[in-house]
Design goal:
Blueprint: E1 3-8, H1 24-32, E2 50-56, E3 63-68, H2 70-73, E4 81-84, E5 89-90
The structure holds zinc ion.
Zinc ion binds next to α2.
Length: 93
């Protein structure tokens, strides 16, 4: 396991999760088969308020879901932060 650099993807607030999921956090939990217990941004121990849309730095536009607190989810799009790569759940397989 290793940390990877990610950034928030903006303009995703209106994106609905796929059928069968009540929220993006629910999507993440069902895909991972476990409950989110904390904000998964490295160095943050906030609560997992939302399933945030992030992209990997240098990868292009592919979106992933990461449990995040509201503060981390509101980081500006330019701000790079780190998360465990294994905590990123792709929006599209
Ligand atoms: Zn956080």
């Amino acid at each position: 396991m290793s940390f990877i650099e990610v950034k928030n993807k903006k303009g995703t607030a209106g994106k609905k999760p796929p059928d069968g999921y009540t929220s993006w956090l629910d999507f993440w939990e069902k895909k991972k088969g476990k409950k989110a217990t904390t904000c998964e941004v490295k160095g943050c121990d906030g609560s997992p308020d939302v399933g945030g849309h992030v992209i990997k730095v240098g990868e292009g536009g592919k979106e992933y879901i990461l449990p995040m607190c509201y503060d981390c989810n509101n980081k500006p799009e330019e701000e790079v932060f780190e998360a465990w790569e294994s905590d990123l759940v792709p929006v599209k397989d």
